## 1
Amino acid sequence: MELNFGAGNNRMARERTLEICALNLAANPHPEGVYISILRRAQRYLVQARGTDYAKITTPHSVSSRPGTYTGRILIWTEIDLKRPWLDLTNEDELSPGLKRTISIPENARPNMRVFNYVFVEKNHRLYFESKNEFGERLGPNTAKSIFSKITSQELLGFDSPEVEVTIVPEVDAVERVLTLPRLRTLFIRVTLPNPDTASPAARKRVHDRLKKAKARQLEERYIKSTDAEQLEPTKEIQELAEVAAENGLVRGEGRDSDGKKVEVSTERYPKKFFVGTGEGGSLFSRLLAAFPSL
């Protein structure tokens, strides 16, 4: 869905390139249509994004030219506690009760609005969102993950709703960066039951079958180097599990630099980024499609 601002709006576009990041949504169980059902239920709720910022999403709308693809918006604003004291900048003191009574803000109005478009592709349950919109405003991947984790949670939607794991889609070499940390001392891997029909089917299917056989939804493994070893040496099996976890969980490592100081990194530190020009069509979907026809 494209936002159209009138000519009188003073929010002139300052940036001509959009920065796009992606989230992977993994529902368990995941029958046909489950993701759109979850997002449509989730759009009813408001959640805390970060600090005094709150967020909600709009209803995902189907793209008629691309079945299984949906578009919507992430709305972010700042919540103000009107009962708290107000500052009078002129007097550098609390605003007088008389002036405070003159403040009138409609109940449905919220300040500091920011809007970020999203595109959801159902076949691979991946959600692309503007991490930098055309006005240069930013929505960090970790904040976006927090928003979607909260609005799709069972605590909010009810325990009849499927469990949803939200993962920041990392750069291709993110796992390698973690596993090749100098003097790797500890390695943590968390993987949530992946869909066996997505990328890297052989590796994912092995992990999928392993968890299904154990009737498990999630697997966590932690490796700590032995006292007589200089560093951990991840095996082929560990590397495979880490690759699956990169898009269906988390991989985190801790090492030591040349000065002996602790260095800790995770796959979430290296989000995959796409850059598209605002001239590539009139909506986020058309811009993504123009830049990445195989989307």
## 2
Amino acid sequence: MTDLFNLQPAPGVSPCVAMKNFFSKSFEMKGRASRSEYWWPTLILTGGLAACDIAARHYDRAKHPEAYAANPGALERLVPIVRVPAPGAAETEAEKEARKQHSDRLAETSLLFSLPLVVATAAPSFTVSVRRLHDINLSGHWLWLNAIPIAGNLGSLVLSALPGKPEGRRFDS
């Protein structure tokens, strides 16, 4: 049986193997990461951040029910939605200020819920991105593309979706 933990890059791995590689290679910049090694952790972490946001909203709703709809629908019970004025309705300065304070408080709560996940996965996320670029025969310096708002992020998204190239073996040493 082939050892999927030592292949460079590991082709078509399962989510469990991808997450194991994600954390076990947290500080490894050399080598390559296949698309599945990159995308499974990305998908799982995005789901984790969404769950943190939903948990923060539920916590905030329990602490400040006045900021939410009085009779929530099915979607609002799952993901509490902050009450907003009807289109065209006049809103007083006090209502605007209360909504801004609530928005700030919700952002702080969401940050507190998601911060441990972000801190725990910052290094592995960075290194798996570098290894993914290596698989398409690009230097990790291409991550600087993310510094360009919107276009850079879209460019990085496209690069991470490209199939690996045999020339990327030069990064395996």
## 3
Amino acid sequence: MITKLKLWFAELKANPLPTLEATQEGRAVWAVMATACVFLLGSAMGFFQVFLEMDPCENCVYIRFSQFCILIAGVIMIINPKNNVLKILGLALAWYGIFYGLDKAIILAGQHVSSHAADAGLDLFQSGQGANACSLEPTFPLGLPLHEWLPFEFAPSGICGEDDWSLLGLNMAQYCIISYAVFIACALPLTIAFITKTLKKGK
């Protein structure tokens, strides 16, 4: 496995675009993307919600929804990564999930700062992002009642930004932002490679 990775990086360094074009036509890279989402979702529900007993807030369940979108996108592309229809559908869903989740993570990060404003002697609601900005009745895209279908996963029961968990000085929302930045950094070159490969086939 390590040897294959070393060879892949060597090829990427020598021939970036052809290597990425070949990579996006394989199942491995999309399997990694899907596995990353399984890890993130498993951490959220297994470690934070069950083990640490941290109730998910409204934006937390939106972030979960976005990660489910990216997971499903990966599965779609794994089916047949050389099929353009499936690839376009998968990439569109993945990018939707990335930007939707990034937006909610940024909002949650702001709510985290606002909810801890009292520690600095500031008004909790001065930025308009305190507990009142968080609802127990989520509104998912397309009106999907996911909180009714899958309440454990998608029914919010916590207050946005009220968690005190941190690792290396960063809170959960900030790690979510980092995860979406990594998704973008990985998905962007692969998307460009798909476009260039498709254009070459069309000539």
## 4
Amino acid sequence: MPPSSSVPEAAKTRRAGSAGQRSGAWRTAAEPVDEPTLSEEGGVRYLHFGTEWVQGAMRLRAPAELVLAYTQQMMAWLLFLEPTRKEEVGILGLGAGALTRFVLKYTQALTVTVEWNPAVTAACRMYFRLPAPARSRVEHCDAAEWVADGRNAGRCKALMVDLYDGLAQGPVRDSVQFYQDCHRALSDVGVMTVNLFGNHASFPRNVANIRTAFGNRVLQLPEIDEGNRVVLAFKGPALDVTVAQLLLRAQDVEARYRLPAVRWARALLAQRGRIMSLSV
């Protein structure tokens, strides 16, 4: 098992049977796909969906820490937004509850997490210390139906989309219509982050569909070692932030949230070459 900084994220990044790493403590009983199963190693508890591929993780001594690198990148919207106590952050796909735990610990925002499988929620409540404060809701339904529901239009300041099943063959919801509905679920000014496979046939299709739904207002973080690639998409007035402003905000995010935000900001700037400001 590698150290926690390079924990295997194969359920989010590779197909079963590929060269992706596995959790050495995985139990080999033949549970059905998407039936939550657990393993532990090195003080970290892992969630699986009946396969060897890791679907989520929690450090037992620091439950709110984002153990997997891609989950840290899913919070990159913090470079551009600071949610208030009256605003809501949406999470599509509960996994091991890492994003929900982090948002509840480090922000004052309301949270709504959409998870189709009640067994995953039960596992998170029992084994992954999923909080249940009054400002947090878990809604059990298909994420595509949730974002298409007009009652959720304009609801989320930030929306994090991480929708994979136990087969890990790419996102289970990825149509233009789905991403258009995600756009509609954002508030007038909002940011969506999506976890994708960088080196996978689903990647160009997803990026193209996101670009169509969000009017080409898209940024991409570099692919991490495990293969994940997080895409950011923007709604609202055109964003134009100077290099100095972005780096200053990144330093603040890094200090307050303990996330590698300066690295993210520099990576986004490097993709644009020598520029005075980042526009999207």
